Amino acid sequence: MEEQGTREILTFGRYLKAKFGRRVVKIPIALPGFTCPNIDGTKARGGCVYCDNDSFSPNARETRSKFTLSLESTENPLIELQLAEVRRQIAQGRERLGRKFKSDLFLAYFQAFTNTYAPLSTLIPLYEEALSQDGVVGLSIGTRTDCVSSELLDWLARKSYEKEIWIEYGVQSLFDETLARINRAQRAKEIKEGIAATVSLGLNVCAHLIYGLPGESEEMMLSTLKQTLALGVKSLKIHPLYAVKNTALANELRMGSFTPLSERRYLKLLQKSFELIPPDISIQRLTAGIGDETLLAPSWCDDKRRQMKRIRAALRSQGIRLY
Questions:
Q1: What's the first-to-final CA gap in the chain, in angstroms?
Q2: Residue 173 CB contacts under 8 Å (≥ 6 apart), including other chains
Q3: Under a CB-based contact definition with an 8 Å cutoff, are residues 175 and 213 in contact?
Q4: pLDDT tens digits for the chain (323 residues)?
Q5: Among residues 204, 211, 213, which one has the least CA distance to residue 231?
Q6: Residues 248/49, Cβ–Cβ less than 8 Å
Q7: Closest Cα to residue 168, out of 7, 8, 5, 12?
């Protein structure tokens, strides 16, 4: 219950608990064979400047493969391995996360790389396999707007009548100069059109935003937030840009062409963001980082627990409660 004069943030966990009557936990899934169009050369090479997928999804480290899927082919020699991986990773997550969070309900979260970047003949069996596992009440699918076909959206929209379906789109920024600067290989217009098409089918969209991208001012970051909210998304993930080893961003950091956000500035940006975010938008993430030797900068991104403590304090000073 909200205290008088205090706004309580709708976290994604609270949203799911209200809908299902008890806690629902996301189980991350990373499958061999999946890649991204700005990694495999379809649109670009090298990925986004900050991209070392292992750092964003540790599961990807275990399931890397030299094979990749092709949208040009309906054949997938990896399909049996992928189906087995779906079963294995869900069973493992159900045991570990279910015990940790005392839950028996789950969302299968297709996290690593671009999880709609494959033929329908590959994707639908994988999604169906995940939904058939004990306790799985829905899907959350991480992807890009330029990798989702209208046929897949139609299938997901039909599936959403019986299951909890979320599409997580990497937006990052809605400024073309920034998207080009980070090697995103997309334009803002394409991203906005893709989100609008998804929302028009009644599908739930979570938008990922990154604060502190090279060359962006505070006004640009908050403008991306406002534009994204105007598209009708229902959930947000926001985090600061951090540099890890073996990325193009690491080179830029070394050469002095990238300066990471200070923690103080990031906290101020979050405070200003919640002046814009409506109370019915669920929040799935407000920070990110990695607590090992691969993190280069900023150093304050090494401990998520400490970050969250400071974020809660900063928001509480504005009369906003996050728990």
A1: 12
A2: 179, 182, 184, 188, 209, 210, 213, 216, 220, 221, 224
A3: no
A4: 445 568 999 999 999 999 999 999 999 999 999 999 999 999 999 899 998 855 444 444 444 444 556 555 566 788 999 999 999 999 999 999 999 999 999 999 999 889 999 999 999 999 999 999 999 999 999 999 999 999 999 999 999 999 999 999 999 999 999 999 999 999 999 999 999 999 999 999 999 999 999 999 999 999 999 999 999 999 999 999 999 999 999 999 999 999 999 999 999 999 999 999 999 999 999 999 899 999 999 999 999 999 999 999 999 999 999 87
A5: 204
A6: yes
A7: 12
Kindly give the pairing relationship between strand 7-8 and strand 320-321: parallel
Whether residue 28 has a cis bond before it, omega within 30° of 0: no
Q: Residue 212: which of 245, 235, 178 has the closest Cα?
A: 178
DSSP letter for each residue of 199-218: HHTT-EEEEEEEES-TT--H
Type of residue found at 259: T
The encoded tokens of residue 253 equal: 């950091």
């039909």: which residue's tokens?
158
Q: Residue 79 is encoded by which pair of tokens?
A: 């399909």
